[in-house]
User: Fold this.
Amino acid sequence: MIYNEDFETLPREVLETLQLKRLQQVLQKAYHTVGFYKKSFDAAGLRPDDIKNLSDMGRIPVTTKKDLVDNYPFGLFAVPMSNIVRLHASSGTKDHAAVVGYTKRDIETWSELMTRCFVAAGLTKNDVIHNAFGYGLFTGGLGVHYGAERLGASVIPISGGNTKRQLMILQDFGPTTLCSTPSYALNLAEHGRAAGVDMRSLKLRVGIFGGEPWSDTMREQLEETFDIKALNIYGLTEVMGPGMSIECIEGRNGMHVFEDHFIVEIIHPETGEVLPPGEQGELVFTTLTKEAFPLIRYRTRDLSRFIMEPCRCGRSHIRIDRITGRSDNAFSIRGVTVYPSQIEAVLKGIKELGPRYQLIVDRVGTMDTLEIQVEVNEKILSDSGEVKVLQNIEKLIAKDMKDELGISVKTKLVEPNSLQHLEGKVERVIDRRNIWPSEQ
Ligand code: DLL
Assistant:
């Protein structure tokens, strides 16, 4: 089933003509209304009307997370605040948060794209959607919600947390669809098992999972545990939120990107060069229809590749493979994106510590854990080898991390020069969760 057949099945040539027309409009708009884009285009010696073909995309400067942070909170908005009807923000403190705005029309577009996702997942107005994505500044909750209502389905706005209640509602309200992060779905299953609930006998038939990386092994586990078909949904706050791309139920292999609303490119993470179709690299998105927050060539840091084979569902829109890693070492833990640089900044402020640290990400049962191992400096060891002093430092790190990241972490102080050296480098992040395909 296809929600907007006219646009989702456009022949490639027609689609590209539409993309170019929309791109030219968005470049003009951004250049003339957002100071940042004028500056960056001028610096590159580029005028919006220099872009005459989609193959000229590579000439347009990229936008990075830093650009968003530097313009915090509203510096990249292209419309006055009176036209903004909604604000969202990515997780993180001021140094890492990106704030995005939506006009009324942006919300309509977003809702349509989320509805497209549900129809691609095989849902109709007869479905009941248990939406366990967090409601709030996170785009997951409200993004999914508006799409579900537009479809005419019944949405249960349960949001995240309160697992006991979620289990009750899953049994009593009989939802057919579960939307959540894949790790939360596993968490629900584990609690269900402990409470003696047979998850396979629930009415669920589809799970729409995303917001964090997951693997095919997790897909099998989720499908088996809930007796559902599990689909991958990908998006990021900066570009729009969920609704940018999803796997269709027919293909279940790679996520279609709604190309009438976005141009997606894959670039080499180090050189920035646009890579030929099929090669692995970093996803770069340009929004074609967003009014409040147009985003041009945004470097997502997410690694993927295009799947070039046509999909049996009939959509002409390109598919991207599941995300296989991050080019900036960031990782997602309990739905929160953590950047090693955030942790580094906190550790730097504690004078008893040495410069080397290592982050061990693991999954215990269905719970993601983060352990920060950090070397103490020589001086603290010689001044006081006292256990109590060291314990206090560990406590301080844990507290500062909780303030910075919003999640609890374990800390472990280790001796100077004891952290693993890899060609003289410390391997920053060791992710033992087995969620990246290359590690399976
Ligand atoms: O996670 C938006 C979203 C909500 C997508 C619900 C899907 C479902 P952010 O909080 O800004 O937005 O986090 C975006 O999460 O750059 C990826 O690194 C990661 N991510 C999101 N979906 C997937 C996925 C939302 N399906 C960041 N697979 C992105 C792997 C994902 N990583």
